[in-house]
Amino acid sequence: MKISKQEVERVAQLARLDMSSGEVEKMTGQLDSILRYVAKLDELDTTGVAVTTHTQDVVNAFRDDEVRDSLPRDKALAAGPRHNDETFVVPKVIG
Amino acid sequence: MHNLTIGAIREQLSRKEITSTALVESVLARIDAVDERIKAYLNLDRDGALAAAEQADKDGGSGLLHGIPVAVKDVLCTRNMPTTCGSRILEGFIAPYDATVIEKLHNAGAIILGKLAMDEFAMGSTNENCAFQVPENPWKAGYVTGGSSGGSAAAVAAGECFASLGSDTGGSIRQPASLCGVVGLKPTYGRVSRYGLVAFASSLDQVGPLTRDVFDCALMMNVISGHDERDSTSIRRDVPDFTTALTDGLQGVRVGIPREYFGEGLDPEVEKAVRGGIDMLREAGAEIVDVSLPHTEYCVAVYYLIAPAEASSNLARFDGVRFGYRDMKAESLIDMYRQTRSQGFGDEVKRRILIGTYALSAGYYDAYYKKASQVRTLIKDDFAAAFDQCDLVVSPVTPTPAWKIGENADDPLALYLSDILTISANLAGIPGLSVPCGFSSDGLPIGMQMQAAHFNEDILLKAAWNLEQRAGVVDKKPAGLD
After folding, report:
1. What is the pLDDT of residues B258-300, one digit of tens each?
2. Preferred mutation among B81, B336, B358, B430 to probe A, highest tally of A CBs within 10 A
3. Which of B20, B39, B73, B418 is catalytic?
4. Choosing among A9, A32, A34, which should be mutated to test the B contact, i.e. which has the most B CBs within 10 A?
């Protein structure tokens, strides 16, 4: 096995996903077959090969540092599941 | 009227033979008649479209799409309609701004009818991952539209809009275009702004058109292309009038046939249709040359590490705080994140978040993400070498025509492998197009893929237009819908 149930549970924890033991079981099998497939890349020697994270030759895109209008607060808050007209409201963080 | 091309509509509108109101009414009637079967629309702005048409008739106007009803994949933010990305986690979400491509459609005078079904967060090859409904292929009930822009392809094929926009991260415009028998173009990475496109894999995503014919595709590209300062990856480069590329004859054009794209698993009918299309390109004057893209067999593995890695990061924003669904019962912040995401995301999205998180996690980054990014370089170099020998690379879009809904649904890897012919264009950042070239014996459409070097969309459009003139399939419409 490329990945164990415990590793799937750990990754789910990192990704903030809750999964039932049945889901973990099924996902472990599927992730294992995907990881076994992608291990195909090990056939290639990539020593010294540069990474590609972006396909075009652009570096940084700057604009003049000037103040512009931003999204008004009421519009930014409007799609939030809970807000108090000033901020988003979430369950208490510090007990 | 619902089957007209935009080219024909523009002429008839300019001669005042038709009105925008009549166009919108005709398309709405068509949607009423067929969408129960096709299930392409997630949201239809009937009143808005009629009002916009009335205004367009009153004002007149010279925009390229003045008074013409189109629709967009539900991954593009719109201020006046919900944007769900086919996901429960965004059910009811209304964006506070329009995507740049939506602004460009409006500026060209287009009327946006509604939002089209898609695989959840554009993750899928069949549209079966849409949380709300599974659209069906206009050519055959019970068959997939392809994905993830399945609604965008099906709506154009079924006469439910005159053109649409989709997004393509690993084939999501070209593959459904092929399976539904329409033209679809994934532009060069950076050609079209991604501002307001809900991100799946940011180094691969690109917005593009799905249309009835190649001329309409060129016209839509004229409307949506161009640099946008709100997308720092969009490229400062002049946009040509793509319609001027559509001239008869391919003398001096070298068409490369990559041997790796005609390998095992290719359906014989697909191969026959595509080889027939290649003969038509030759008859049009093109020189046909053999080329090799030796790292093709590694594309799927590279893609299914890089795309999930980027997705796992992009989808972290769906946490129940700023938009969309929240589990209101959660008592702590962490529980709220976990429960919101677990209830809001479907299985395929969870699967990709897990693969991506794993591939980026401590101890695995070098073996998976870095390795994949290095092999991506080799794939990109393959294309650079091929484009020394030819101007475009021609192949099938998918190994098979459309298949039955439900087939492969439990085998994610089998579905991933079906993306093998389209993924490379995204990894290399080059443009790719699908144009209808024939039909299977079952009457299902078959597309030809054309890929070219960065910013050579004009060559793709020219070759596709020449094929379209000769293939004689552009006027064929799905039967049994009327």
Report:
1. 999 998 889 999 999 999 999 999 999 999 999 999 999 999 9
2. B358
3. B73
4. A34
Nearest-CA neighbor of B75 among B143, B164, B136?
B164
Query: Hey, where are the domains in chain B?
Result: 6-256+388-471
Give burial (CB, 10 Å; 0-12/13-18/19+) of B262: middle
User: Looking at chain A, which residue has its C-alpha nearest residue B307?
Assistant: A53
CA-based torsion, B241, B242, B243, B248: positive or negative: positive
Inter-chain CB proximity B355 and A51 less than 8 Å: no
Reported as type and span, the H/E element at residue B177 is helix B174-180
The CA distance from B17 to B456, in Å, is: 36
pLDDT band at B408 (very low <50, low <70, confident <90, very high): confident
Do the interacting molecules here have an ipTM over 0.90? yes
Q: Is the pTM of this model over 0.95?
A: yes
Q: Domain spanning B6-256+388-471: which CATH class is it, in words?
A: alpha beta
Torsions phi, psi for B136 (to 5 deg)? -120, 150
Q: Is B369 exposed, middle or buried (0-12, 13-18, 19+ CB in 10 A)?
A: buried
Contacts of A73 in chain B (CB under 8 A): none
User: Is B148 a residue of the active site?
Assistant: yes
Q: Where are the domains of chain A?
A: 5-43
With a cut of 90, say whether residue B474 has pLDDT above it. no
Residue range B137-193, pLDDT digits in tens: 999 999 999 999 999 999 999 999 999 999 999 999 999 999 999 999 999 999 999
Residue B18 contacts residue B12 (beta carbons within 8 Å): yes
**CB pair distance less than 8 Å for A15 and B96:** no
- A59 pLDDT exceeds 90? no
Taking alpha carbons only, the member of B151, B88, B33 closest to residue B323 is B88
Is the Cβ–Cβ distance between B25 and B50 less than 8 Å?
A: yes
Judge whether A74 is closer than 8 Å to chain B, CB to CB.
no
User: Is residue B387 a contact partner of residue B424, using CB atoms and an 8 Å limit?
Assistant: no
Look at the block and give the residue holding tokens 């995401």.
B341
**Active-site annotation holder among B20, B87, B148, B167:** B148
AA letter at B64? L
Going by C-beta distance under 8 Å and a sequence separation of 6 or more, which residues neighbour residue B54?
B20, B21
Mean pLDDT of the region B418-436: 96
Is B370 assigned a catalytic role?
A: no
Is the per-residue pLDDT at B479 higher than 80?
yes
| pLDDT at A95 (0 to 100) | 67
Give the type of residue at B151.
Answer: G
pLDDT at B180: 98
* Residue in B350, B416, B429 closest to A17 by CB: B350
Spatial distance between the Cα atoms of B463 and B470, rounded to a whole number of angstroms: 11
Q: For residue B148, is the peptide bond before it cis, meaning its omega torsion is within 30 degrees of 0?
A: yes
A5-43 CATH, one of 3.30.360.10, 2.160.10.10, 1.10.20.60, 1.10.10.10: 1.10.20.60
Residues from chain B that touch A3, judged by Cβ atoms under 8 A, are: 358
